[in-house]
Write a structure and sequence with these properties.
Length: about 180
Amino acid sequence: MITRMAKVEMHRREAGRRKKRSVPLTKLQTPDVVKTVLRHPRRLEELLDMLGEKDLVLRGRAAATLASLAETRPERLVKALPRLRECLGDDSDYVRWHLFYALGALGARFPVATREYWRDIFAGMEDGSRVVRLVAGKASARLIAGDPEAVAAVYREARREVPPEIAALLPQDAPSAT
């Protein structure tokens, strides 16, 4: 009888060592993906790969999740900025406006790290989609609220005049880019 108990205990220990299978992020809804990526930061790469999927629903879900992460844990997305920029040309308005939202949230929190992406955000105000223009405008407003002089400096460095849409958001005492 003692031998049987020892075998049962060994069996339990072996079962405890098994590695859990990870569920693909493509099978989860946005709140679950956010929780999973927060618990397992290495899965962020899998989420970013979803932006390249052919399926519009998966790309949209990935973009919505990234926008949510940009609000809750933006420090996790700073390294992913180049990948976000690549996807701003997506053919889906839904994907684009979520990415502009994420870039605006990251830019407001990390202005130095995101400064090279600000012109992309400002360019979103000229998008063909009204919703994307609105979200890009709100993202621009977040950047301007954080540092209006830096926004004007971005245009000075590019040797371009501040567009009227951006100039309207700048405080009157902010230096102009001309």
